[in-house]
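On to my pick:
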Amino acid sequence: MIAAGSARRTRLLVVALVLGHLVAITRQVDAGAGQTLFDRIVFSVLSPPQRAVGGAMQGAGGLWSGYLDLRGARAEKERLEDELEAARRELQQLRARARETDKLRELLGLKRILPYESVTAEVVAREGVPWFRTITVDKGSASGVRLNAAVLSSSGVVGRVVSLGPLAARVQLLLDRDCGVGVMIESTGVAGVVSGQVGVADSGTSDLVMNYVPGYAEVAVGDVVVTSGLDRIFPKGLMVGRVRAVAPDAGLFRDIRVTPSARFDRLERVLIVTDEKHEPELTESVR
């Protein structure tokens, strides 16, 4: 065993001496271009691993750089999405303000041409049913509103005040079957009374019914229906709607359906007449 170990050490020593001798020789042999044979051998042996390691390091650097770029792009995308969403919200708010401004401008235009004192009010509540019969507005007796005052929109008659407080009022809409308005056909002067069809069960239709029109009266589809002023509530000449259908003469009165001009489902602001000048006064007693 000792002899085998000694022989192995001897062989290793011989190999080391031979390698040292070869290294010494190669360091002295000129391989050209200012390089020794040893340098060229070392370069040839080590350059492939160096290239491999360098490529791996470069690839890892590229992956890291790509990862950082991806994170930056994702953050930029999220920032742009947030800005886009904010811009959309702002645009929506601007559109809502523009619509509100247009409606208010139309209402103020009606207020200027209406020959009666009036006050603008905002709708603050309505019945939570499909065919609502009343709305609540933010003006009351403190603003000069009175019971039975006519309520208008920029497109037509809305209804009348039926309940009143200092700072709010409840308005009965023309859709209610218990709300009647004296009207006439604008072109012919044929008179009647318009009422809604929404009853206690909160079911009905947005069509209005024009009652008490004589069977012989001339009424055509498309005729404009306006207030007659004879009910002493609504001033004369206000737009109510247009005739949608006329039933054939079936007796004493004609069955006439009217499409209201006011958009009850889109009411936001209304005009309340506070002037009583349109109500006729009796100056002499009848005996």
User: Anything to note?
Assistant: The domain at 114-273 is CATH 2.40.10.340 (Thrombin, subunit H). The chain has a mean pLDDT of 77. The two ends are 157 Å apart (CA to CA).
